[in-house]
Design a protein that fits this description.
The structure holds 4 protein chains of 4 kinds.
Chain A lengths: L12 E6 L3 H10 L8 E6 L7 H9 L4 E6 L10 H18 L7 E5 L5 H18 L14
Helix pairs in contact in A: 1-4
Chain B lengths: L1 H13 L5 E7 L6 E6 L2 H7 E2 L12 H4 L6 E5 L1 H12 L8 E5 L8 H6 L5 E6 L3 E6 L2 E6 H4 L2 H4 L11 E2 L14 H7 L3 H12 L7 H5 L25 H15 L8 H5 L7 H15 L26 H4 L5
Parallel strand pairs in B: 1-4, 4-5, 5-9
Antiparallel strand pairs in B: 1-2, 1-3, 6-7, 7-8
Chain C lengths: L3 E6 L11 H9 L4 E7 L5 H14 L3 E6 L2 H14 L7 E5 L1 H5 L5 H20 L8 E3 L3 E5 L3 H12 L3 E5 L14 E2 L4 E2 H14 L3 E4 L2 E9 L2 E8 L14 H5 L5 E2 L8 E2 L2 E2 L11 E2 L5 H5 L4 H5 L12 E7 L1 E4 L3 E3 L16 E3 H8 L20 E8 L16 H15 L4 E6 L9 H10 L4 E4 L2 E6 L5 E7 L4 E7 L1 E6 L1 E3 L2 H9 L26 E3 L9 H19 L3 E3 L5 E3 L9 H5 L5 E9 L5 E9 L9 H5 L5 E3 L4 H12 L1
Parallel strand pairs in C: 1-2, 1-3, 3-4, 6-7, 6-18, 7-10, 18-29, 20-27, 21-22, 21-27, 22-23
Antiparallel strand pairs in C: 5-30, 8-9, 11-12, 12-17, 13-14, 15-16, 19-28, 24-25, 25-26, 31-34, 32-33
Classes of the chains: A alpha/beta, B alpha/beta, C alpha/beta, D mainly alpha.
Chain lengths: 148, 325, 663, 128
């Protein structure tokens, strides 16, 4: 396959999506052919509360420029309470990253229901734009993992 | 106080009520006081110490000691009882095997604080409760005790014991108006670049000696994720800036809502990294976002990360607040 | 090392048009563990599945990656195929290169690159997959139907017919729902009560059906096959078993000014009341908001007259706990409030009414005994204007964005019946579109126009102004003749949009069933699983899922019943094997996991362990009840030592995916 | 200017998406100036949408609109016909390259019986 040479910065975005709402929302965005950049790669998890802060740090270590977590709207969790824990955990984690001087805009939590395909696409477009503006992740990088 | 403690310890040993005593004894240097286990009256007489230099939090030792044959007597300062109580809440200590004697504390003298005043070649330190006398190779000097205390004691959060079987000395109160979050606020007020610079400067000194982890009462996992090759976070020594950050972020996150702010992590750090400022950030956020919470204070209250309310703030609050841009 | 086969689907041109599928198959050949990689037109077809099965046998594959549509579509299909070829179904992973790749990207190069990365992530995950065996859980052979309207009634009757116990929970004092208020039904014009009340009686008499009237669902716990539901029976201050429904109490009750909700508040009832003559159960209920005895302890008339001693002023709300295998939601609808539509003067004039109020005005059991009279002065109206789409298809924020579906037909019915009974009336219907898909529906509408002379006018009413002479000035536009009309009407009937019952939102939260932005319950699949909620064991019946007329509601009710019967016919259900698992060697016994588990699936026990120094120690360790665990993973993050992990979505599997994506 | 350009100009000035119109006619039904108009609000929307702009530009209808915004208020699809009419008016004025009203014209127009709002509205309308 021909490799296209581009100089523009293409961010690497990892999106953790809960199986019941947000992953279905992402599928709906697909069904409705709503475009968002190919930089976003989705990892399916049963619930947003499955996402360990270690996964997020790992993503940054391995070269991600932004990590977004999508779950059911609070109150609508398939497992009743999972996203409430997510909300607390991620609030504290993001606050800590910010405290360490790491750009807080690189991490985000968004609630996307199975019916919100349009919101999913809009969220991803916005997040990619934000991260692209920030540029490459330098503050939480592991140089050994950078393919150069 | 020291003689009173030795007397009670001897009585309890003699009556067979306890099989051993956990307290403090002199380490390599006489200002370097270390935890010790005593099983006889003679050992107590010859080595047991309690003075203004006994900084160590003994609660964590009870995880192992409480599983031994017979009861263990432990002396706990007010702030240590918070750690002890938190460990009880997490079922880590078998309460029935521990006899807790609460001892008073009006702040401990810290050798690193003394060194920071410029003194070098320190041979010994003594305190009479008011004044600290420091003998150095270059002569003696004195300073007020307040100047020799570490930040955690100056901003003491409580002089009240939350758990004990008996108390020696007078019971104190929770110190409501302490200033322990001042430094956190100062860092929060920095620009992201300054904060990054600040923490890089601190964390880049980490040599991953694991002293913070080993001393921390909340870090009592049977197997730490950083020692577990299967965990995905396995890492024996940081080989670059990421791993330095990773270890301390994850450690702080794992103890968030469980850390009682005893400050042992910063005390033992050979590189003098202010690790307690990471824990205090979580404590401050928890207090501000989810209501005042002091780990270890209340046995029935749920840890803030193990509970929620439907009206909790959204993570986006992080974007809305914070210091200068 | 696994031996992994990669199968890249073209999905016709759905994938192949934007993703170079051959390049994807080729690129994945080089991944560790991949021993076979190919592409095919339709992987989900029989031929495609055979390709997978044959390759498993031929290459001795231990793991399979299918790059295709969403796992929500065909994960089961490919798992079954793998299983029939002799490997564990959980050794299959799907890379979603359709919904999350080919359909959203236009550029072939970047779509292909992304598809390769998604494929690599799936390969990396399969490397770490382990065979999983599903446990089993028993099925409670009893169903709960929430809502006792025509949808709930039909569902309950069908389930009972199949021999299963079924309970109906209805918040009103009687079952029957909105259909009891309707006079006649389109397009056949048979009387609603005549076809509904026998079904209500059937429910009451069926020994498999238990009706909890004047009750609400207070709490739902558990999972498919094994729900525990708390039902709150609201105090009706009448002993249901003793009350004979004779009605003497309602005749004697001195409080006569309670707005009668059955007649849309157009007449009054007493404080103790039976909603209507054919109510089921036919039992009186005291309205605590109006009863003098309950409010200030002065009265007790009903108790004096009751011959069977059924009145009990001390009755309290009670909570009943029941176990169910399946739950059907049939919570129905209400017309929207018209507060945001001042232009139609609904709140200013009594003679501007909703269609449901019109139903009561024409019903023999209604406030006017079926004679069409103006609510304001009781006179016969000579000019009636019907306005369609009031609050429907409204994106301005005042109403609902959807089409309420039933209004075109009932308005045609109202117009036709009015002209038939009162040929001297002029009837105008203002419409935007007349939507009549349905058997004999368009014929019905055309009859209203052609045989009954109803004036259908394409256009909308702009405003209704009450005038001093008691008439209503209706200003509207006729788009076909291109003129603005001013009609003096005696009665204006608004076809208000319908919305899901307000109770549905909190119920959805209890059931963990998802809803759309309009508060309609979402179905598991819009075409293929229209009567199931995505939450296993929860089924949907009637308007709670979307606007429907009666025939559609009844069809869906029976369909939901069929699904419930299929579930209850099973003795055991296969559990999800992707559950949490505690590594006892690493467990601290700290109870963090237990505290965050929404199912109470985690318990602790003291166990003896051999320590490295050959001593033994007793430690408190967690264990997971696999039948109860639903696999959310909340515990895995609460656990600081990483002792708690989730099968099928393990820490190492997710991190392998992260690594593959970020590489 | 090409026909299509005019359409785009009007849509751009007004910020209206004419395609949202579902042809219910509620705008015309609610319009107080309906009888004065050659082209009624719903026709405006349809004509702009279909690019049939010329007749609008030369019609008196655009000056009959009172800018009372009843149509905007009532429209169930949030199409905002009044803004379209305003935009057509603007297009005419831009084409003529002159204002219908100047500041200096105002004093002699002041009249005790005339509500100030009307003058302000007219001034706003005819000076753009």
């Amino acid at each position: 396959m021909q490799v296209k040479e581009t100089n523009e910065f293409k961010p690497k975005i990892v999106a953790f999506c809960c199986n019941w709402c947000s992953y279905a929302g992402a599928d709906l965005a697909g069904t409705n052919r709503l475009q968002y950049p190919a930089d976003v790669k989705i990892i399916r998890v049963p619930c947003s509360c499955r996402v360990n802060p270690m996964f997020i740090l790992r993503a940054f270590q391995r070269g991600a420029d932004g990590v977004i977590l999508c779950g059911c709207h609070p109150g609508d969790c398939h497992y009743t309470t999972g996203n409430y824990y997510t909300r607390r955990r991620m609030t504290l984690l993001f606050s800590m990253l910010d405290y360490l001087g790491i750009e807080k805009e690189r991490t985000r939590v968004e609630w996307v229901s199975a019916a919100e395909g349009a919101k999913f696409a809009a969220t991803m477009n916005d997040f990619v734009a934000t991260v692209t503006k920030l540029g490459e992740n330098k503050r939480l990088e592991d140089l050994r993992c950078k393919a150069k | 106080m020291q003689s009173e403690m030795i007397k009670r310890a001897k009585e309890l040993l003699a009556s067979g009520e306890v099989a051993r005593v956990v307290g403090w004894k002199a380490g390599e240097f006489d200002y370097d006081i270390t935890p010790g286990v005593f099983t006889t009256a003679e050992e107590l007489d010859s080595a047991f110490l309690y003075n203004d230099l006994c900084e160590a939090n003994l609660s964590k030792y009870m995880i192992a000691q409480s599983r031994k044959e017979g009861k263990t007597l432990v002396f706990l300062k007010p702030c240590d009882t918070y750690s002890f109580s938190q460990l009880l809440k997490e079922h880590r200590i078998l309460r029935e095997n521990v006899y807790v004697i609460g001892v008073p504390c009006d702040g401990k003298v810290d050798v690193d604080t003394v060194k920071a005043t410029g003194l070098t070649g320190i041979c010994s330190m003594t305190s009479d409760g008011e004044t600290v006398t420091v003998k150095t190779l270059y002569g003696d000097s004195t300073m007020s005790k307040a100047d020799a205390m570490s930040e955690r004691c100056i901003n003491c959060k409580s002089k009240k014991h939350v758990v004990y079987d008996e108390l020696l000395g007078e019971e104190g109160d929770v110190v409501a108006d302490n200033h322990r979050f001042d430094m956190v606020e100062k860092i929060e007020a920095m620009t992201p670049d300054e904060r990054f610079e600040f923490w890089r400067n601190e964390l880049s000194r980490c040599i991953r000696c694991n002293a913070c982890r080993n001393v921390c009462p909340a870090c009592s996992c049977e197997k730490c994720v950083f020692d577990n090759e299967q965990s995905g976070a396995f890492n024996k020594g940081a080989s670059d800036s990421f791993e330095e950050n990773m270890f301390h972020i994850i450690r702080a996150f794992h103890v968030a809502g469980r850390c009682t702010d005893c400050g042992e992590c910063s005390r033992v750090c050979p590189q003098n990294i202010p690790l307690h400022l990471l824990n205090r950030k979580f404590i401050k956020d928890i207090n501000e976002l989810y209501g005042e919470y002091q780990a270890g204070e209340n046995a029935d209250e749920r840890a803030p990360l193990n509970t929620f309310t439907t009206e909790d703030v959204e993570p986006s609050i992080v974007y809305e607040r914070g210091g200068k841009q | 090392m696994q031996k992994i086969g990669v199968f890249v689907c073209h999905c016709g041109t759905n994938i192949a048009a934007t993703v170079d599928v051959k390049a994807v198959a080729e690129a994945l050949k080089g991944e560790p563990g991949v021993v076979f990689s190919t592409d095919y037109q339709y992987m989900c077809s029989e031929a495609g599945q055979n390709l997978i099965k044959n390759s498993i046998k031929e290459y001795g594959l231990t793991g399979v990656v299918v790059c295709s549509c969403s796992p929500r579509m065909h994960e089961q299909t490919f798992r079954k195929a793998a299983q029939s070829a002799g490997i564990n179904p959980y050794m299959v992973e799907i890379a979603n290169i359709r919904e999350q790749c080919s359909w959203i990207h236009k550029d072939i190069w970047s779509a292909t690159e992304k598809a390769i990365i998604l494929g690599k992530a799936a390969v990396a995950k399969v490397q770490l997959n382990a065979p999983l065996t599903a446990g089993e859980s028993p099925v409670v052979k009893r169903a709960l139907v929430i809502g006792g309207g025509i949808a709930g009634i039909q569902t309950a009757l069908d389930i009972a017919e199949a021999g299963f116990e079924v309970d109906i929970v209805e918040k009103q004092p009687t079952i029957g729902g909105k259909m009891t208020q309707i006079d006649k039904t389109f397009p056949t014009l048979d009387c609603a009560a005549c076809i509904l009340t026998p079904k209500m009686v059937d429910c009451a008499q069926n020994e498999k059906i238990k009706i909890y009237s004047y009750s609400e669902v207070a709490d739902v716990k558990g999972f498919v096959g094994n729900f525990t539901v708390k039902i709150k029976k609201k105090a009706r201050y009448v002993d249901e078993d003793k009350c004979t429904g004779c009605g003497i109490c309602t005749e004697k009750c001195p409080v006569k000014n309670v707005p009668n909700e059955f007649n849309m508040g157009m007449d009054n009832r007493r404080a103790i009341y039976i909603p209507f003559a054919q109510a089921v159960p036919k039992v009186a209920t005291i309205d605590a908001n109006y009863c003098n005895m309950l409010k200030n302890g002065k009265c007790g008339v009903c108790s004096k007259f009751c011959t069977v001693g059924a009145i009990d002023y001390k009755q309290q709300d009670t909570i009943v706990e029941e176990k169910y295998g399946a739950i059907v939601v049939a919570t129905g609808f209400n017309p929207i409030k018209l507060d945001d539509f001042d232009e139609f003067a609904y709140s200013q004039s009594k003679d501007v009414i909703t269609s449901l109020e019109f139903e009561r005005l024409t019903n023999a059991a209604g406030p006017t005994s079926g004679t069409l009279l103006r609510p304001s002065d009781g006179k016969h109206p000579h000019t009636i204007v019907f306005v369609q789409c009031v609050g429907s298809r409204d994106t301005s924020g005042c109403g609902k964005t959807y089409c309420s579906k039933i209004c075109c037909m009932y308005t045609a019915k109202h117009a036709m019946l009015t002209r038939e009974k009162y040929p001297d009336t002029d009837v105008y219907v203002f419409y935007i579109d007349v939507r009549t898909p349905g058997k004999n529906f368009d014929e019905f509408y055309r009859r209203a126009v052609e045989e009954y002379g109803v004036h259908y006018i394409k256009g909308m009413v702009g405003k209704v102004v009450p005038r001093s002479d008691g008439t209503l000035m209706v200003q509207a536009s006729d788009l076909l003749s291109n003129e603005q009309l001013h009609i003096n009407a005696d009665l204006v009937v608004l076809a208000a949009a319908i919305e899901p019952d307000k109770s549905a939102r909190s119920l959805a939260t209890m059931l963990t069933a998802s809803m759309d932005t309009n508060d309609f319950f979402t179905e598991a699949h819009p075409k293929l699983r229209p009567v199931e909620s995505p939450t296993a064991g929860i089924f949907l019946s009637g308007v709670c899922q979307g606007p429907k007329d009666i025939p559609e509601t009844v069809s869906q009710a029976s369909a939901a019943a069929a699904k419930v019967i299929g579930l209850l016919a099973k003795d055991k259900l296969t559990c999800n094997p992707c559950v949490a698992q505690a590594n006892e060697l690493m467990c601290n016994g700290c109870s963090s996991c237990e505290k965050v588990c929404p199912y109470g699936a985690i318990t602790y026990s003291d166990k003896e362990f051999r320590m490295p120094d050959r001593t033994t120690a007793i430690r408190r360790v967690a264990s997971v009840n696999e039948a109860v665990c639903q696999g959310c993973g909340a515990c895995t993050v609460a656990c600081p030592s990483g002792a708690m992990d989730l099968k099928g979505f393990s820490n190492s599997q997710i991190m392998a995916e992260v690594d593959a994506i970020c590489k | 200017m090409q026909k299509q350009d005019k359409q785009e100009l009007i849509l751009r000035i007004s910020g209206v998406n004419a395609r949202k119109c579902m042809r219910c006619g509620k705008c015309s039904a609610t319009c107080p100036a309906y009888d004065e108009m050659e082209y009624h609000p719903h026709q405006f929307v349809y004509m702009v949408e279909s690019g049939n702009i010329e007749p609008l530009l030369s019609s008196d209808s655009i000056y009959k609109c009172l800018t009372c915004f009843a149509c905007v208020e009532r429209c169930p699809r949030d199409v905002q016909p009044a803004k379209l009419i305003e935009a057509v008016r603007l297009a005419v004025i831009r084409e003529q390259d002159k204002n219908h009203m100047k500041k200096g014209d105002l004093p002699e127009l002041l009249d005790e019986d005339l509500p100030q709002q009307a003058i302000v509205s007219a001034f706003r309308k005819y000076t753009k």
